[in-house]
């Protein structure tokens, strides 16, 4: 699976994010597919999580974000900074709410890296 994913142009872009390894990159590519088919982020749509999404994809992204947060002392990552920003606000967010917001931030980062490089 990793060898097939390495042949794609987007592999190196996604793999360049600190905390995402080769296997995780291959799994993300396998679940999401062609990420350029999604909206660019310039338009606004509903920003809430729906249960109609791909459950495997949502679970994968949840664990990717959790591993990035856990491995914070090994590398700097904007997702970790965003998580702690949400947790330390005057109206602090719950753990799962902050993780889901970080999943959204990670997807936007991946979309930007794949679309603009």
| N-end to C-end Cα span | 23 Å
Return Rg in Å.
14 Å
Classify the beta-strand content into a percent band. Answer: under 5%
Helix residue percentage = 55-70%
Total number of helices:
6
Walk me through this protein's architecture:
The protein is mostly helical and 117 residues long. The chain has one domain. The longest helix has 22 residues. It starts with a helix and ends with a helix. The mean pLDDT is 84.
Compose a concise summary of this entry.
This is Transposase IS116/IS110/IS902 C-terminal domain-containing protein. With 117 residues, the protein is mainly alpha-helical.
List keywords for this structure.
117 residues; mainly alpha; 60% helix; single chain
What's the layout of helices and strands?
Layout: H1 2-6, H2 10-15, H3 22-32, H4 55-70, H5 78-87, H6 95-116
Helix pairs in contact: 3-4, 4-6, 5-6
Domain Transposase IS116/IS110/IS902 C-terminal: 12-41
Organism: Staphylococcus lugdunensis
Protein name: Transposase IS116/IS110/IS902 C-terminal domain-containing protein
């Amino acid at each position: 699976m990793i060898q097939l994913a390495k042949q794609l142009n987007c592999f190196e872009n996604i793999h360049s994010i600190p905390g995402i390894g080769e296997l995780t990159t291959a799994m993300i590519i396998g679940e999401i597919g062609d990420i350029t088919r999604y909206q660019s982020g310039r338009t606004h749509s509903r920003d809430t999580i729906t249960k109609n999404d791909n459950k495997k994809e949502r679970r994968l992204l949840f664990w990717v974000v959790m591993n990035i947060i856990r491995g914070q002392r090994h590398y700097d990552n904007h997702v970790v900074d965003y998580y702690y920003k949400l947790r330390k606000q005057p109206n602090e967010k719950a753990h799962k709410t902050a993780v889901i917001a970080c999943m959204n931030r990670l997807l936007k980062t991946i979309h930007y890296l794949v679309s603009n490089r």
